[in-house]
TrEMBL record:
GO terms for biological process: L-tryptophan catabolic process to acetyl-CoA; L-tryptophan catabolic process to kynurenine. Belongs to the tryptophan 2,3-dioxygenase family. Binds 1 heme group per subunit. Pfam families: Trp_dioxygenase. Its EC number is 1.13.11.11. GO terms for molecular function: heme binding; L-tryptophan 2,3-dioxygenase activity; metal ion binding. This is Tryptophan 2,3-dioxygenase. Pathway: Amino-acid degradation; L-tryptophan degradation via kynurenine pathway; L-kynurenine from L-tryptophan: step 1/2. Keywords: Dioxygenase, Heme, Iron, Metal-binding, Oxidoreductase, Tryptophan catabolism. It comes from the Bacteria. Substrate binds at F61, I62, V63, I64, H65, R127, T252.
């Protein structure tokens, strides 16, 4: 073995005694490896093309979407923790996690560049196999919207083919407090009025003008705005990619395609954070 490598396996018997050493073994005493820890075999068996023989670009299409879903999982984990931290008054931790969210969202926006290396004619080689599936059916994407603060139960009716578990997850997201609810709670606990939108707006102006007193809350408002800006950026990039790939065609999910997506572009999670800028 090269000098640069420490051979942990040879030192195993010495450290294996006692509780400390036992942690180096997996459940059945098998030694942990990269592949077993990260379930690489299982992960790499999950990219199954619909076309046969597979269209060249279908693997890229599947991998990109799976990468999105993995990051969506991580975002839900962080956003849920950030909401709970705000509820508990741990504002530093909430801001820390929301900064991470913004960094992940940078990656999500830029992943679109990779998909745009696919030409529309190469997409057409497998697009016909995709209907009626579409990104419209991404449960985690909708969970992210609900948790962030945009709860539109209309999507539940339009969802087809949800498992009972997926439906329960969406119902839970619709019922639980959002990041915005938690943020308004932070304002209220700082003694600022939050009775209705007008009061919240006035409180946001107070926070913005007196950062000496409300610096932590200002910083929190900024990372929430960043989260909102990033989702808007993703939507804007997604729709231009869609126009580039399918032009004026309707979507596999049954919508008008780009016009439907354009109609959703003005959506904001935190309109009051944007409006406040006009009042400064
Ligand atoms: C070639 C690439 C893509 C094309 C042509 C495309 C096209 C479309 C179209 C036309 C819709 C409207 C629903 C329908 O099908 O009728 C849609 C929705 C959606 N797509 Fe894509 N998409 C692409 C890639 C992606 C990727 C990589 C993601 C990442 C997860 C994604 C996520 C979504 C989501 C979440 C929606 C629902 C948006 C909403 O309701 O606001 N799409 N897409
Ligand atoms: N809706 C897209 C197809 C598509 O992009 C798609 C299909 C299945 C699963 C996810 C998809 N991604 C985003 O909509 C289209 O109309 O071409």
């Amino acid at each position: 073995m090269d000098e640069e490598f420490v051979d942990f396996s040879r030192s195993q018997p010495a450290v294996a005694e006692g509780a400390e050493g036992d942690r180096q073994f997996g459940e059945e005493g098998a030694r942990l490896t990269y592949g077993s820890y990260l379930r690489v075999e299982q992960l790499l068996s999950q990219q199954v093309p619909e076309t046969s023989p597979p269209a060249h670009d279908e693997l890229l299409f599947i991998v990109i979407h799976q990468a999105y879903e993995l990051w969506f999982k991580q975002l839900l984990h962080e956003l849920e923790a950030a909401r709970n931290a705000m509820d508990e008054g741990r504002l530093w931790w909430a801001r820390h996690l929301l900064r991470r969210v913004g960094t992940i969202e940078d990656v999500l926006v830029h992943q679109i560049d990779i998909l745009e290396t696919m030409t529309p004619q190469d997409f057409l080689e497998f697009r016909h196999r995709l209907a009626p599936a579409s990104g419209f059916q991404s449960v985690q994407f909708r969970e992210l919207e609900f948790l962030s603060g945009h709860k539109d139960p209309g999507f539940l009716q339009r969802f087809k083919g949800l498992s009972a578990e997926e439906r329960a997850r969406l119902d839970r997201r619709l019922a639980e407090p959002t990041l915005w609810d938690a943020f308004v709670g932070v304002l209220a606990r700082a003694g600022l009025p939050t009775g209705d939108d007008a009061e919240v707006s006035a409180s946001l102006v107070t926070v913005a003008r007196d950062r000496g007193t409300y610096g932590d809350i200002w910083e929190l408002a900024e990372v929430l705005l960043e989260h909102d800006e990033q989702q808007a950026a993703w939507r804007a990039r997604h729709v231009t990619m869609v126009e580039r790939q399918i032009g004026t065609k309707s979507g596999t999910g049954g919508s008008s395609g780009a016009p439907y997506l354009r109609s959703r572009l003005p959506m904001r999670f935190y309109p009051l954070l944007w409006e406040m800028r006009g009042a400064l």
